[in-house]
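Re: export button greyed out
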Amino acid sequence: MVKPLFPIAVITFKEGIRNRAIYGISILALFMMLINFLICQMVMRDVGKVAMDIALSTVSFTGLLLVFFVGINLMAKDLDKKTIYMVLARPVSRAQYMVGKFFGMVALIVASNLIQGSFAVVSLFILQRMYANYFLRFSWLMFFLALLFIVLMLILLTALSFLFASFSSTSFIVLVLTIVSYIIGNSLSDVKALVEAPQSVGIHPSPITVKIVQAAYYLFPNLSFFDIKTQAANGLAVSLSCVGWTMLYGFAYTAVALSLACFIFSKREFP
Amino acid sequence: MRRYYPLIIALLFAPVYLLCLSTLGPLRKAEQQSAGYSYTLPGPIAKIATLDYDGLAADYLMLNIQSYYGGTFERTERPRVKEAEWRWMYDVLTVSSDLDPYFFDPYYFANSFFTWDAQMVKETNILLAKGNHFRDWDWLPSFYMGFNEFYFLHDNAKASEYLMQSSKKPGATAILASLATRLAYKASRTEVAIMFLQQTIEGTKDKVEREALEKRLKTLQRIFFLENAVAAYKTKLGTVPGSLKDLIDQGLVKRIPTDPYGGVFFIDKDGVVKTTSDLR
Amino acid sequence: MITFENVSKRFKEGFTSRKVTALDDLTLSVATGEVFGFLGPNGAGKSTSIKILINLIFPDSGRALIGGQDVGNKDVRRLVGFLPENPYFYDYLTAEELLRFGGQASGMDSAAIKQRTDLLLTKVNLDKARRRPLRTYSKGMVQRAGLAMALIHDPQVVILDEPMSGLDPLGRKMVGDIIIELKQAGKTVFFSSHILSDVERFCDRAGIIVGGKLRSVESLDTMMASGATLENVFLAEVDKAGQKEVD
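Workaround output, generated via the alternate export path:
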């Protein structure tokens, strides 16, 4: 079962990392890290927080670009341009194809985040030297933890995109569904808090709306669990149990999404 | 020759483009200040809209406010900032601190300008209370609140309560101890304000900010100087002087200092030294 | 070696509920070591039947077997080499990496992969271009890379869907030589084509499929001996099926 996964993961990774888009994404990250210097000059006091905000937001955003465009594009080539024949002609099952491809994507996400992350490290290191007084609550541990969580979030989103790809006919649909899931995933806890206590804003949601939001909470991934940028930027700590449960949540959701994807995909035909 | 036609057309449009550019810039800018402030999304809605970039959005709003406020210094009309604008800026600071309640700059900005210039002290303390709650490691929000209660709201009891809170937090400077004792002895407001400003200026790196604070400090120091002279007059003659000129006549001061804000120092019927500019 | 047992397949046409019959009760057997050509007009069902063999499509009824095993079993494809019509590969891989993937996925060890890669790339004349990304290949080169990919694991059964499409005369000769070589090695070859001369050249037997139904299976030798040409037989069958034009 496991043996063919490696070659599939390897070609997925190679195809992804050689995509020109990776250069564009990395240049964007580099650019943002330079902008970081300009913006920090304008900040009145809390430079450390703003610097960390920009660094982590850039890594997160470029990671999203990777998943939405490079990742889904890799899927697209197989769905739209029938490059999947070259893999399915081998003695591999549909499930092995999916899982192998997924591992290739995971490797791609990790590699890309290492690149963008290293730009962030350099930028923050220099800024810390320049504005030492305002970096008093800065924590490298929290920075790397936030980075890890970003990677986990991207992996989860990728698994979800695989699920969408297993039944969609074009890559465009997969892209739209994944972007929608990202938006819902990040708004979920805030919207749920809002509909359950609407008096703060003066709106009156109907009971059906509340039920829908609550259902969505269970169905869609709650991506805000993986957003610890604010904590990292302000030097707050995240408890070990919180970290553990979050990772378990990510793992569980990913496993469910990927398994469903494999199941649906095994019934799929390629005329 | 034919193949150069597209190039020629491009060249013909260039002056049109440049004309539009030079016209639109100032035109938009002129319209900007009158309608640049109006509505802002309430905090909980903003939190949803900014997905997982809440912190970044808070930073962006803050920088926006800074540049907007900085832009008002170009104005010649008085009051330089309208009440509606202060209200709007306050709302934006509220949203920014809703998005990231640990972010220090909104609290700092509010305390620097909303108390002295906008006279929105109560509102500032509401905002600072949020900062005090979330930034539980930080002695500054409670320090600011304490000062505001003392200097602007004349509530010594609340003031000392906040300063007590503040002095217990890590990094609270020794200045707090002396402030607390000063308050206990009902020290002069001006002296407390001077100590407070000196503390603030120490941490300021921005040139424009520093200049504004130093101007205020200089003014207060001159008022303090005059207050001391008035106290000396009272000791000597048993009453407060009718006008500041009396101080010169009695030989207590050589001349009346000028007000950096362009006003004139005077003494009111209760013997309190004031200035026509009111430090604005 | 290859068996179709009453295989039928219907496809839905767009969003209407109208169904198109791609294969109608196909029953066919190809013996071991045989070279079998599958002929038919466009849309007759040649590609469909081949894709069923590779388990890309599932039959509505009936079943297909290769080497006695149902084609749904993935291990069947250890014995099978497949070249699709108009093959597409990942743009940024090189021919060498492509073959390495093919070999590894089929369970070969690195030494064997290296040896077969050198052999096959030389044979299909891609040795000079082996380190270049597949993006830079011409259509003919892609086709030849696909052929090497199909043969990397030295399969017993080779299935080719329109293997000559897009090749210049040199390429066509090369493919033809390979087919002959495979036959001499005792491999079973099943290929579809609508170029009659190719089928005449290589095949032991030819099957003619029109409108999803297998119309006739001819042994080339007996057919030639009786003086008929494949073209005559083919046109006669198409005529019988009531199709004046291709679909």
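The longest strand of chain C covers residues 19-30. The button fix ships in the next patch.
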